């Protein structure tokens, strides 16, 4: 069942995307409402799955994870067993920040965050020892120009 959201819901969501640590009073003031209706709307959107868990965004470079690789994977295997094994391997690796199955020439793209090139090589060697892939291309991000988790509401 799809949940309908209105302009006030969008304003609340935009504020939560900016800073989920804001108090209900602060959000209510910014969106032009009062605390109780804002709380009720947030609760309903959580129950509907529109709002997921609240997490902290960490600074990868400040924690020593200075290398970000985009890994393009082509496979010649597309059966369910291979796919299950591949997905299990990805889930087990915390270095994989994102993984997407693609349409086109490349089958998968991974966003991998590691401390350095040597750490990427260890990740790569472990992955290919577990799962057979046809071709792997790693692209090192030289500079992160934009990164956001905010949806364009």
UniProtKB/TrEMBL annotation:
Which SUPFAM superfamilies does its entry note? Dimeric alpha+beta barrel, Winged helix' DNA-binding domain
Q: Which InterPro entries match?
A: ArsR-like_HTH, AsnC-type_HTH_dom, Dimeric_a/b-barrel, Tscrpt_reg_AsnC-like, Tscrpt_reg_AsnC/Lrp_C, Tscrpt_reg_HTH_AsnC-type_CS, WH-like_DNA-bd_sf, WH_DNA-bd_sf
Which GO biological process categories is it annotated with?
A: regulation of DNA-templated transcription; response to amino acid
Keyword annotations of the record: DNA-binding, Transcription, Transcription regulation
- Top-level taxon of the source organism: Bacteria
Kindly indicate whether the keyword Transcription regulation belongs to this entry.
yes
Q: Which residues cross the membrane?
A: none
Per its record, how is this protein called by name? Transcriptional regulator, AsnC family
This chain's source organism reads: Poseidonocella sedimentorum
Which lineage ranks, top first, belong to the organism behind this chain? Answer: Bacteria, Pseudomonadati, Pseudomonadota, Alphaproteobacteria, Rhodobacterales
């Amino acid at each position: 069942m799809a949940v309908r959201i209105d302009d006030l819901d969008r304003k609340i969501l935009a504020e939560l995307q900016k800073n989920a640590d804001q108090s209900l009073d602060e959000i209510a003031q910014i969106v032009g409402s009062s605390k109780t209706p804002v709380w009720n709307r947030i609760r309903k959107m959580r129950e509907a799955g529109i709002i997921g868990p609240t997490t902290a965004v960490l600074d990868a470079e400040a924690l020593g994870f200075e290398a970000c690789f985009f890994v393009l994977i082509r496979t010649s295997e597309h059966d369910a067993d291979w796919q299950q094994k591949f997905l299990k391997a990805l889930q087990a690796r915390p270095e994989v920040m994102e993984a997407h199955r693609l349409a086109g020439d490349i089958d998968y793209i991974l966003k991998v965050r590691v401390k350095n090139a040597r750490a990427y090589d260890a990740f790569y060697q472990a992955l290919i020892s577990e799962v057979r892939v046809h071709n792997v291309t790693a692209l090192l991000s030289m500079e992160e120009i934009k990164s956001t988790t905010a949806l364009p509401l």
